[in-house]
Structure formats: C-alpha cells, structure tokens
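Quick one, probably user error.
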C-alpha cells in the first residue's frame, strides 16, 4: 500500500505557515478584509479567510502547479472574481502548498521592485523637465 499523506487541521496549517513565512525577508503582516494578511515589501501575497487561504501573486505556471496539489478556485469578493487570485481550501491540506505560497511571495517582491523602478524613472523625468 502507498504511504498516506499526513493531513493537518487549519490551525496546524496556520501555525506552520506563520513559522515559515514570517522568517522570509521583507514579510510583514496586517489585517485586511478583516483577515490576517501577509505582505512582501508592502505588496500583499496571501491572506487567510474563514475557509482557506488566498494567494494573490501566482504566475500561470504556479497556478497550474497549485491546481495539481490543492482544491482551489478563483477568489471571489462581493460576487466578483478577482483575476489571478487563488482561493485554496486548506482543510486537511498537505504540505506542498508552501511552494505555491513561496511563488506568490516572489511575485509580490517582483511587483514591489517594479514599482520602485517606475517611481525612480518618474522622478528622473520630473527633474529633466524642470
């Protein structure tokens, strides 16, 4: 017989999540949407909701990889689908989800870096037009 996957409760998952994610560089937390939210350099990459975890910065490849290991769907807020946000059911979730969390974190870092470059370029344009 094959080896059974170890399943965890939502509380165990949250504890393991915090233990890992809060050790990553530039990660901060705050409440958004009334839920615990995780940011990388100020850009949100995940947050917990009552029935799961939402990842906000997945590439198409990371989305597909996640779909292979987790029950997930596009995140809906106020009846509208938020494009690119994955709502993951974490009840009994095995460990491989953390690879997708890391991918969302890295996506948030890229967005933060791009924003810094964009602001710097905008500042240079202002100086040259003065």
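Nope, works fine. Designed sequence:
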């Amino acid at each position: 017989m094959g080896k059974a996957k170890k399943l965890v409760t939502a509380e165990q998952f949250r504890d393991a999540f915090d233990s890992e994610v809060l050790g990553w560089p530039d990660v901060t937390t705050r409440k958004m949407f009334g839920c615990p939210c995780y940011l990388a350099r100020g850009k949100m990459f995940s947050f917990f909701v009552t029935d799961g975890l939402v990842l906000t910065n997945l590439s198409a490849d990371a989305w597909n990889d996640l779909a292979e290991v987790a029950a997930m769907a596009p995140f809906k807020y106020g009846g509208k689908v938020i494009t690119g946000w994955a709502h993951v059911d974490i009840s009994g979730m095995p460990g491989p989800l953390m690879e997708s969390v890391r991918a969302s974190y890295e996506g948030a870092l890229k967005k933060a870096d791009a924003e810094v470059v964009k602001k710097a370029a905008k500042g240079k344009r202002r100086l040259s037009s003065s």
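Residues 97-129 form the longest helix (33 residues).
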